[in-house]
Amino acid sequence: MELSEIRKKIDALDDELVRVFLERMYICADVAAYKREHGLPVLDAARERTKLAGILTSAPEEMQTYLNTLYTQIFELSRCYQNSLLEPQSELVKELNSVLAQPAKAFPQTTMVACQGVEGAYSQHAAEKFFKVPNIFYFHSFEGVFSAIANDMCAYGVLPVENSTAGSVNKVYDLMMQYDFRIVRSLRLKVDHALVAKPGTRIEDIREIFSHEQAINQSQEFLKTLPGVKITPVANTAVAAKMVAESERTDVAALSNRDCVSLYGLQLLREAVQDNGNNYTRFICISKQPEIFPGADRTSVMLTIPHRPGSLSRILNRLGALGVNLTKLESRPLPDRDFEFMFYFDLEVSVNAPEFLQLIAELEPLCESFHYLGSYSEVV
């Protein structure tokens, strides 16, 4: 038989599969109506297990794996469709509905902003990109930034969450969960580290270099060219530059933003010493109040799921079924639970799209814990 003839048979079967699949989905609407009337949950795990077992028992052994994959996805699509027909009732969805129903307001141009570090920090540059005229207050630690917002000292905070080479800033994510604040905007900032010291200092004079741990990690190849030099982590790259400027020593230097040269009266010894020339840090702007500004097309969530096969797959299948693009997936071990993880998701979906609230409503029941971190747009 010719390949074209074989394909005609497949095409005919596909037509029938589409017809039967649509008929099955429309019947699911009747199931959803019954469940709404009787107050039943969409997921009936016992029914799905029994149904799947019966299907696999009736199939040849070599086809059981394929059927298991097919029907797991069909069940997922069925639940997805049923959820789309039911009114979301979770407190989070009610909150989001309330926020989205408010009149649209522009992102503020000037306000009080909390940043970690001192003048010249990368967070300052990020704040100046978020806001036209920010009134910046500096704090020694990330927790200080959160505390300032919690106590209404500042309306917003600007924090680094991820570097293109050094990875995520886990402490910030931990604090986001602890304080239950919301991300209202994000940006990617080009980061170039410079080696700076007091005027007259030569590289061969240096015995100790100060900088933030992330900047140190991002400049390992350069630091290897300075054997015997002590590398000391400090709270912030700008703090490092300020320490050098205020020190009585002449054998110390800092890895910092080159703007710190003029800011603290230092000398530029080497510029762009980071390992990767394409080095970016992602910053977020956070708020105590749940705010969603026009153009928000990204959503971040953190969640834990049951520790059993298929739990993560169910989450990913739900994203696929709704056509939501996953731009970041990262796992972190839970401190008191062996081999169990917290998952961080960045999702690309407009808050004005119908699948946005449906997605939130459907993900919550699948998780042991679900933390909505916010919906926002990214500044270019």
Q: What are the defining features of this structure?
A:
single chain, 380 residues, alpha/beta, ten-stranded mixed beta sheet, 43% helix, 25% strand, elongated
Can you describe what's shown?
The protein is of the alpha/beta class and 380 residues long. It contains 13 helices and 15 strands. The protein has helices spanning 3-38, 45-57, 61-85, 91-101, 122-130, 142-150, 170-179, 213-217, 220-223, 237-246, 260-264, 311-322, 354-366; strands at residues 112-116, 135-139, 156-163, 167-168, 182-190, 194-197, 208-212, 230-234, 252-256, 267-270, 280-287, 298-304, 325-333, 341-348, 369-379. The radius of gyration is 27 Å and the shape is elongated. The relative contact order is 0.13.
Overall form? elongated
**Percent helix among the residues?**
40-55%
- Which sequence of SSEs, written as H and E, runs from N to C? HHHHEHEHEEHEEEHHEHEHEEEHEEHE
Number of strands: 15
Q: What would you call the structural class? A: alpha/beta
Average pLDDT figure: 92
The low-confidence runs, each spanning 5 or more residues with pLDDT under 50, are none
Kindly provide the radius of gyration, computed on alpha-carbon positions and rounded to a whole number of angstroms. Answer: 27 Å
Share of residues in strands: 25-35%
Span between termini:
57 Å
Biggest sheet character:
10 strands, mixed
Give me the number of helical elements: 13
